[in-house]
Structure formats: structure tokens, C-alpha cells
Amino acid sequence: xxxxxxxxxxxxxxxxxxxxxxPLSALPATLRLKxxxxxxxxxxxxxxxxxxxxxxxxxxxxxxxxxxDPSYRGQILVFTTPLIGNYGIPSNNAPIDSQxxxxxxxxQGIQCSAIVVADVAEKFSxxxxxxxxxxxxxxxxIPAITGVDTRAITxxxxxxxxxxxxxxxGADASAPAxxxxxxxxxxxxxxxDQVSTKYPYxxxxxxxxxxAVLDFGVKANILRSLVxxxxxVTVLPWNYDFxxxxxxxxxxxxxxxxxxxxxxxEAVSILRxxxxxxxxxxxxxxxxxxxxxxxxxLEAYRMTFGNRGHNQPVLALASAGSIKAxxxxxxxxNHQYALKLSDPFPQGxxxxxxxxxxxxxxxxxxxxxxxxxxxxxxxxxxxxxGPLDTIEMFTDFLDECRVHKAENVKTPVGTTIDAASFMRExxxxxxxTA
Length: 434
Hints:
This protein is of the alpha/beta class. About 20% of the residues lie in helices and about 30% in strands. The protein is built from eleven helices and 23 strands.
């Protein structure tokens, strides 16, 4: 009885360990959708108004990772979880070595245009937290709204699809709604070009397997998942002429990214030549998966509301490495576009995964008869956040690279890459860029 009374702290005392976020803004805020609906609340971020594409995420946790994911570029992110901000924001600095890539989160800063929450936490508590969600948004110049019915917003978006919107702050909140022509559509812009690195850079240069990464808006945990498996990673701009240097690498990786894959036809053309002439392993995630599919001859289409969250079930239709046909895997996702399921499939290719909820294509792979080792998945095996059901796909990819390297006696000598040779007079950057 005495021990129990020591362990069980009074509720008022335990709550006292949380840190107050500080005074929240008294400014009014209004989320206006192009379809005519308006939702009124109060601002807790930057006091500026923005346009964007209004989407929802079913993630229960990891709001920091979602907000720093470059795939959310240009989007007003609605969180379906009611309380957001309760564990604050960590310092975003990490070492650059064989275990980490320079940041704790998914990029150097917030990538979405704005956030919408039902109830922002006025206290936060976590051993690594250094500031509140409100402080982070204000410091990053990102507007945010709280006190709105996110369930009603989500139901609208689910029924009518992803919708253009405007988050209006302060005096703009009570102003008339914008006319239809004023709403900005991110899909008409090349968002990938905005978030991709401008110059090549290296991570873990002493790694045993040399991997080239085409950066369409890479999440840091993708790079982290590669370097922790002893890969030497060279990150290239999304439209870099990979074929001019491909023989110096043991494998090619295509990353996630924001927006419409139709804006990246330059990368599709480059990859089509790679797939025709190069026999080393290729792996793509999210946008990278769509680029692989388009290079193979499939079409991409815009989904009604996309899949965003850390709880999407997918069914494996084929076995490869750690993936077993017939098993359902729970995955983390963030995409608006998908590949069309065609019948027949392009020669040399087969479906790999299908979504258990909407039957959309979640993965493709080269057939054994093709002689190729190419995979693409629409979901994120590296999660961050989300389930780790498919994390070993990174191990599978690098194992195939090692096997191919061991079998290929014609691999050129001197497989290390000097990033400076790519950049001429530009200094190499060994950091995750947004």
C-alpha cells in the first residue's frame, strides 16, 4: 500500500511536468475551400494567409515527420487526430555519419503550406522536445488553425476529393471568399524541382555498396535506411543524367516526392534508357515508383483524395526477398497519384502489391524472365512515422546489389564518386536538403 502511494502521483502533480506552449494567438482564422465551405477557428502559427491543396492525413502520431516530408509541398495538411502538438518539437540536428544524415526529422524544415487541427496542445511533454508546435510554426512562417471540426473537413474531402483551399488569417479571415480563379493549384507546377537537391552530395562515402539516389523530394529516413546498411550514397538532382555515370554505381534508388509525376517526364526519359541498357538493381518509392511505372509503359492518374497515413494495408501479389505473396502488410503512405492497373501488364513487368482498401496499384516489379531486378512501391518502407512491416525491403535491395556486384567481374575499378567532379566549382554538401 505504501509503495503504491509513492508510485501513483496525483494527477495535478503529473500534469505539472508538461511545458506550457505560451500564449496562443488571438487572431481569427478561416479555412475556405474552393467548393464553398468555410471553417472558422483561431490562428496559432504565422499570421499570414496562404493558398494550397487541402488534404487529410489519418496518422495518429508523427506530426513532426509529416510536416517535414517534402511530399506535402504546397498542401494544407488536415490532421484527423484531434489533439496535435502534445509531445512538442525536437531539435532537428543530427550527426552526418554512418548512422545519421544531418537531421532528426524528414528535412531541414516544414514543407507543407499550412496545418489544420481540431485542438492544438497548450502543453507539451517529451524528453527531446525543445519548443511547442505553435512556436515552431511561427518561427517557420507556417500558418495554422485550431478550433475547427476536422472530422467534418475530412468527410468533405473524402466525399468530394482533395480540394483547393485558402487558410486566411487575421483581417483576411472575415474577408469575402476568393473567387474560383484565385485558388492556386500546386499540380500545375513542378514541385519536385522545388524540393530536389540542386547539386550532388555524398553520405557515408566509405560504404561498401555504391548507390545513386535520384532525389524527387527525399525523406531523410530513406537516406538513413541506406547508410545504416553500409551503403555509400550519392544524391543526385531529380533530372540528372544518370546514364552518363551509371557504371560507377552498384544500384539506383528513386525517392518519394510531391505533386504530379507528369511534371517529371525528363526523369522518365532518363530512366527508360537506364532500364533498357542497365542490368543492376533499381528500387523506387512513392514518386520513384510512379516514375518507374511510367518508364515501363504504365500511366499515372490522379486519385480522388489519395492515401495519406500510417495505417494503409497492402496485399503482396508476388514474393521477393523478405516480401511473401499472399501476406497483408500495414504501410505508411503519402501520395495523390497512382499507377493504372493495365491488362495486360507491360512485357517484363508484373504487379507487386495492391491496396486492400481501394485496389489501387501499390507496387510493381520486373518479372524473373526479364533478367532485371527492379522494384517500385507506392508506400514508404522506411515509415517515419508508421509501421515497420516492410523495412527489410532496403536490406533486400542492397543484398541484390551485393550479389550483382560479386557476380559482375566487369565492374569498373574505382567505384568511389567524387561529388566535386559533378559540381565543378561548387562545394559538396553532405546534408539533407529541402
